[in-house]
Amino acid sequence: YAINTIYEDGILIPSSAFLAVGTTGYYGAQRTVTQGTHVYSGNFPFGVFVYGWTNVNSYGYPGGCSLSPVATVNNVTLSPPSATGILNTTIVCLTAHVENTNNEPVSDIRVDFNFTGLTTFTSSAFTNAQGDAEYCYTQTGTIPGTHFVTAEVSNISSNQSTIVWSNIPCTDPTDGGTIGTDQSGCPGLTPFALLGITPPSGESGTIEYKWQQSVTAGSGPYTDIPASDAPDYNPGSLQVTTWFRRLARVTCSIDWSGAVSTDPVLITILPIPSGIPIKHQ
Fold this sequence. Notes:
The protein is about 0% helix and about 35% strand. By secondary structure, it is mainly β. The protein is elongated.
């Protein structure tokens, strides 16, 4: 697991530098270093041995290892048995509990978490004093699916946990809510703002709005009003009778075809009476 994850002084050691050590299943890489301090780091346990050369010729010295007691682990339990998550959003945490033959917790043991299904990968964590090793992650991407996870210590595997990942629910509202009340006045009337009285409902996701108007009838046809994406709308001065309505959808929808509308609000522009004399005093 450690190949292609180990850094030498902050620079990744390429996988091509590692060679198999016989049939042991282990791999090693020889690196030449200069005099001074060097830092090796990685997410998986690995060992480092230092060899002298020429005038400092000597045998190998351990430069850091990750070791665990042998033959102490008897049982590994993984929890929770199942979980769900929203892609790119939810943090799902798994806990492996490790016990010995006396049903006592075992600390400082490396636990490998093996993932298959939606994607395949392995990560690891070490048990604490209570024998618990926790691994948390968020699945990225746009493809939903299921992870099947087991925890493993020295070929002792746990029960399987199932993690179901899905996209953010995306359902347009089923009720558009209500807006304002009908109004009337003379040409040039500036109506009161059309306020959202009740919000849309029935949706799964984040609501967004668009206002439309018609000068023909309450049934339309309607045209979009530019830059009208708020719950409320100020129509401005009107010269003709106009119907207004508000559309609502969720932001994850691909278009407005599934949007729901409020009932239209009618702003009536009254005709100026003819034949009425006007006198000046």
